[in-house]
Amino acid sequence: MRKLLLAGVAAAGMALAAGGAQAALIGGTVSEADFVAAMGTASTAGWAYLGQTTAAFTLPGSGELELRNAEFGNSFGFSGLGPGYANQTVVFGPGAAVGSVAAIAPGFSPFLFFFDNNRTGANDAMLWTDGRVTGGNWREQADMDIFFNASSGTYAFFFDDGGPTGSQDDNDYNDMVVSYRPTAVPEPATLALLGAGLLGLGLARRRRRAA
Description:
The protein is of the alpha+beta class. It has helices at residues 2-23, 32-39, 188-210; strands at 25-26, 30-31, 47-51, 63-70, 75-79, 89-92, 101-104, 112-116, 125-128, 133-135, 143-149, 154-160, 176-182. Helices cover 25% and strands 30% of the residues.
C-alpha cells in the first residue's frame, strides 16, 4: 500500500513538472524566457499564437521590420505570391546586426515573408509564411512560429532552422526572430470624417472672407 502511495505521489509530481514545463512555453514551442529576451518585453501577456503558417499579408502593403535575434547566418525577406514566389527581396542577410530596423513597402499585395537558412548545396531550405518549404534535406526541421499582439499591431516570427537529428537540432525556435509592425492605414470611415472636416473648414473660411 505504501509503495502504491509513493508511486502515486511520484506520478503526480511528474505530471506537475510536465505541466510546469508546458506552461513555460508560448505557442507550444517557444520558451517564455526566449520570447521575452528576443522581444524585449516584461512578459508574454497580450501575445496570441497564430500557428506556424498564416495567410498572406494583404493590408497594409508597408511596415517596419526589426531583427530581434540572429544565429547561424540565416536570412529574412519578403516575396510575392504565385509560381516561383516572384520579387523575392532579402531584408536581413547573414551579416545583419541584431536591432537592425528596415522600413519596407513591397509595392504589391498580398505578400509573404520568408526565412532562408542559407545552407550550402542541397541543405539550403526556404520557408514562407504560407507554409511552403523549398530546399534540401534540412527542410523537415525548418519551421517558424508566428505571434500577434493586437494592442500594438505587431507580429513576431520565431524561426528554427533545425539541422541533422542530434545535437544540432535543438528546436528552440529562436535561431532568427523578426518583428513586423504594419504601417497604420486610415479606415474609409475615418477618411470620410477627415474629408468632411476639411470641407467644413473650407466653407467656414469662405464665409469669413465674404463677410
